[in-house]
Amino acid sequence: MTRDEIVAGLAEILEEVAGVNPDDVTEEKSFTEDLDVDSLSMVEVVVAAEEKFGVKIPDDEVQNLKTVGDAVSYISKAQA
Amino acid sequence: MTVEVVVTGLGATTPLGGDVASTWDAMLAGRSGVSALTQEWAAQLPVRIAAQLAVEPTIDRVQARRMDRSEQVALVAAREAWADSGLADANLDPERLGVVVGTGIGGATTLLAQDDILEASGPRRVSPHTVPMLMPNGPAAWIGLEFKARAGVHSPTSACATGSESIAWALDMIRSGRADVVIAGGTESVIHPLPIAGFASMRAMSTRNDEPEKASRPFDRGRDGFVLGEGSGIVVLERADLARARGAKVYARLAGAGMTSDGFDIVQPEPSHAGAARAVAKALKDAGVDGAEIVHVNAHATSTPVGDIPEITMLRTVIGDHPVVTSTKSMTGHLLGAAGAVESIATVLAIHHGVVPPTINLDDPDDGVDLDVAAHKARHMEIPAALNNSFGFGGHNAALIFTRA
């Protein structure tokens, strides 16, 4: 999957779970500060992302995923 | 000198309508909110009827997925009551605003749905919103959050007396000076096979599956149990001097409340209804109203064979033989934790408009129904003071007295 495809997939999840406008989802955006995703919704995003991208994202990894770009890098590496 | 408390806002979503006006119109027209359960899961149940919401709750999609249905209906009703009160523009200090909203059963449908997910897909798939969705204080908390209430958010739980007890505790909150305005009421939404099977196993529910609209028939000889309903009723209670100072519309005065407990049985009411009688007597004393002045009673009467007649006998003893009695549960079904709140709204509107809503399906009054019940048709009359009764599993008795403001 390309980085753009992963961003698009995350945007879909973020819209469903937290009502984020897909146009706002770009790599430099912070989940909590820019996109207003609270901690419980972040848990939902992670679980949905695991399912969508067929990867495992351990809980202690989640705190390192500050931006959409961080998540894309992690997913992309995990898929490889 | 007791602080005077008035009702300045009403909100409801019920099996009869999505708001207070449509619910009240349906009550006066004597419409039943009971229908057949057509869901696939209902086929195996001995009870296949219920009073389902007339209008699905309108909550933003993202917020709705974090809220149990009982929380959603409470918020819908609270929004209506708050708008009705006009307090949004009154610059109320949030530290003077409280919430007292309870539920009989809480987020049982969330619990059961998440248990299905746990069994099918494992613990990691269980929603992180599960706990706030199923906790019984969730409806009150969501309402407190929406209106920034900071005087205290409370959730009394007393089964089918919850709605009335919540209003009684709200009265106490204002009288004791802890708040100037309280959003109060009850909510319930548990139309799901498990609660239905549980109540049905108690033999508490009507099995008149072929005639849903005739199933809830309080005081009638042919009654065979209650009909489960869902919905919410919310009132805005306010210190009377502040309400008058801001020129608020005042529906009625909440003059007094009485709460007692039977100490008798976990589900059976005390046969002589002594606990209920004490609640009504306490409410009269609290309100400074004589039994002779109570011309209308919105009875608890749920349409069960054991419950309805002792209430009539009790009313005759404590109030007298003059009140015009009704059971709006004949139309709404039994809203459990919301019942006392929706029935308080019906009582307030009866006073406000001078009309008692009917008890439908009362074709053949049972032995012992020796008070004037407003059977079939609404009754127009002056109502200076009225009583609303609610009793709950656990031996809870709550009586509220409303008077013309």
TrEMBL record, chain A:
One of its GO terms (molecular function) is acyl binding. The modification O-(pantetheine 4'-phosphoryl)serine is found at S39. It is found in: Cytoplasm. InterPro entries: ACP, ACP-like_sf, PP-bd_ACP. Its main location: cytoplasm. GO terms for biological process: lipid A biosynthetic process. Keywords: Cytoplasm, Fatty acid biosynthesis, Fatty acid metabolism, Lipid biosynthesis, Lipid metabolism, Phosphopantetheine, Phosphoprotein. One of its GO terms (cellular component) is membrane. Residues 4-79 form the Carrier domain. Pfam families: PP-binding. 4'-phosphopantetheine is transferred from CoA to a specific serine of apo-ACP by acpS. PROSITE patterns: CARRIER. Pathway: Lipid metabolism; fatty acid biosynthesis. Carrier of the growing fatty acid chain in fatty acid biosynthesis. Belongs to the acyl carrier protein (ACP) family. This is Acyl carrier protein.
Automatic annotation (TrEMBL), chain B:
InterPro entries: 3-oxoacyl-ACP_synth-2, Beta-ketoacyl_synthase, Ketoacyl_synth_C, Ketoacyl_synth_N, PKS_Beta-ketoAc_synthase_dom, Thiolase-like. SMART domains: PKS_KS. It comes from the Bacteria. Its EC number is 2.3.1.179. Involved in the type II fatty acid elongation cycle. Catalyzes the elongation of a wide range of acyl-ACP by the addition of two carbons from malonyl-ACP to an acyl acceptor. Can efficiently catalyze the conversion of palmitoleoyl-ACP (cis-hexadec-9-enoyl-ACP) to cis-vaccenoyl-ACP (cis-octadec-11-enoyl-ACP), an essential step in the thermal regulation of fatty acid composition. Belongs to the thiolase-like superfamily. Beta-ketoacyl-ACP synthases family. This is 3-oxoacyl-[acyl-carrier-protein] synthase 2. The lineage of its organism: Bacteria, Bacillati, Actinomycetota, Actinomycetes, Micromonosporales. The gene is fabF.
